[in-house]
Amino acid sequence: MAFDAKTSDAENDEALLAAYAEGDARAARLLTVRFGPRVFSHAMRLLQDRAEAEDVAQEALLRLWRQAPDWRTGEAKVSTWLYRVTGNLCIDRIRAGRVRRATSLDAVAEPEDDSPGVEARMQDRARARALDEALSHLPERQRQAVVLRHIEGLSNPEIATIMEMSVEAVESLTARGKRALSQALAGRREELGYDDA
Amino acid sequence: MTMRNRELSDVELDELFTAGVKEAPVPCSNWMVALTQAALHAQSQRVACKRSFFAELRESLGGWPALAGLTAAGVAGLWIGVNPPMAVSDAVWGETELAQIAPYDLVFTLEEL
């Protein structure tokens, strides 16, 4: 089922949600394909734990299905609502101590890959993993703000809505988060491909 | 701080974020199947609830034909109540007179017969 980001505008999302509430099975499938991977990926960034991320994503979508009949069109974007619910569920789990920190790079087996561009791919993978590990050491709200801004690509006002804070507070959180990441990764320049010493 | 431990620049950090986007965690296909089933299940439950309120009321009354008959009877009854025809008026008035006769009067009347 092809479904690219270009078709994923807020109006479409709301129309699909209304169709879902009316019992349209196609809308149920499309919304799941559209939001399932995105919500899972976001939860995974915040939790660094696949089983917990799957649980959170499932719960967030279940809440969306329950909300569908009472959804007020034009008030909030479906994606914004989902990011907020997912973020809150993740923070609850982190605070409850249900999530462990990311595994160190050394403990993760590198999958074999012989395809062209393998070196660049391996470097991307190593950088992504190092980033995830460094993110997992940030305070949860800082982590959430950095992920929403620099990985999900949302604007500061959107993040402010999701995190229920001012735009200035979001800017401050992301700036502090980025600084902490730069410091945390300073000792790993070489393995990240920045061997300019 | 040595060059080796120099903090990452904004450009370098952006490259890391780009790598993070490219290497986004992907859910496994079994989980996606289960998620779709959960969506359809939640939807069918809701549709069943929504249906039970109207549809079961209609069905308990005997379906659409019975509901149409009941509506027609109701409208006719209302009309007769608001604007009764002469024959109906007489019948009602007559019944009222009969009801006003006390039971012992009726007994004496019957004994005289």
Topology:
The complex is a heterodimer of chains A (197) and B (113).
Chain A: H1 10-21, H2 25-47, H3 50-67, H4 78-95, H5 118-135, H6 140-151, H7 156-163, H8 167-185
Helix pairs in contact in A: 1-2, 2-3, 2-4, 3-4, 4-7, 5-8, 6-8, 7-8
Chain B: H1 10-22, H2 29-60, H3 63-82, H4 86-100, H5 103-112
Description:
The complex is a heterodimer of chains A (197) and B (113). By secondary structure, chain A is mainly α. Chain A is built from eight helices and no strands. Mean pLDDT of chain A is 87; it is low at 1-7 and 104-109. Chain B is mainly α. Chain B is rod-shaped and about 130 Å long. Helices cover 80% and strands 0% of the residues of chain B. The longest helix of chain B has 32 residues, at 29-60. In chain B, 8% of the residues are buried. At the A-B interface, helix 2, helix 3, helix 5 and helix 8 of A face helix 1 and helix 2 of B.
Distance between the termini of chain A: 48 Å
Classification by helices and strands of chain A:
mainly alpha
Strand content of chain B: under 5%
Report the biggest beta sheet of chain A as strand number plus sense, adding barrel if it closes. Answer: none
Q: Give the helix level of chain A as a range of percent.
A: 55-70%
**How many DSSP-defined strands of chain B?**
0
Low-confidence stretches of chain B: none
Major sheet details of chain B = none
Uncertain parts of chain A:
1-7, 104-109
Total separate domains of chain A? 2
> What does the radius of gyration of chain B come to?
40 Å
Please report the total strand number of chain A as a whole number.
0
Order of helix and strand elements from N to C terminus of chain A:
HHHHHHHH
